[in-house]
Design a protein that fits this description.
Blueprint: H1 4-14, E1 25-28, H2 32-42, E2 46-53, E3 65-72, E4 75-81, E5 95-99, H3 103-113, E6 118-124, E7 131-136, E8 142-147
Parallel strand pairs: 1-4, 5-8
Antiparallel strand pairs: 2-3, 3-4, 6-7, 7-8
Length: 148
């Protein structure tokens, strides 16, 4: 059996500089502002903290999102419009998990986020909580919603 605590202690000794923080980074190709607006309208307790836009002096379209810090349910996320096309997108193997106050809140958020997207597990009682739903929104971002 491996002693994980010994490995972790040894690694901590090797790390002399502590990271300031870790923030999820969402990269879009021209739809970051649309996604931000969608999440602000779909999820309570969401707001834009800061927003920087491209000025059009480079290859990026003027006004597209250079970097936006958005708070969703108290979690800060960075949104970015990449000027470079990429052959990949988001995957449901990483998702945002929201604990809802009640079933009505879950149904409301799920209904708004699922518009143009698809359910991976429609909201229901699956036996491990009162109600759970998992969906991929129209931007490909995966959301798990739960009422304990």
């Amino acid at each position: 059996m491996v002693d994980a605590s010994a490995d972790a202690s040894a690694m901590k000794g090797e790390l002399s500089i502590m990271p300031k923080n870790m923030t999820p980074f969402l990269m879009f190709e021209g739809s970051a502002q649309e996604a931000i607006n969608f999440y602000l309208a779909s999820i309570p307790d969401s707001s834009i903290t800061t927003m920087d836009r491209y000025d059009g002096s480079g290859p990026e379209p003027a006004g597209s999102v250079k970097r936006a810090l958005v708070s969703i349910c108290g979690q800060e996320l960075i949104f970015f419009d990449s000027p470079i096309p990429h052959p990949f997108s988001f995957t449901p193997s990483i998702s945002f998990f929201i604990t809802c106050a009640d079933e009505e809140e879950l149904d409301g958020i799920a209904g708004r986020l699922s518009a143009g997207g698809e359910y991976l597990m429609p909201p229901a009682d699956y036996g491990f909580s009162r109600k759970f739903g998992w969906l991929k929104d129209k931007f490909g971002i995966s959301w798990q919603l739960n009422v304990e």
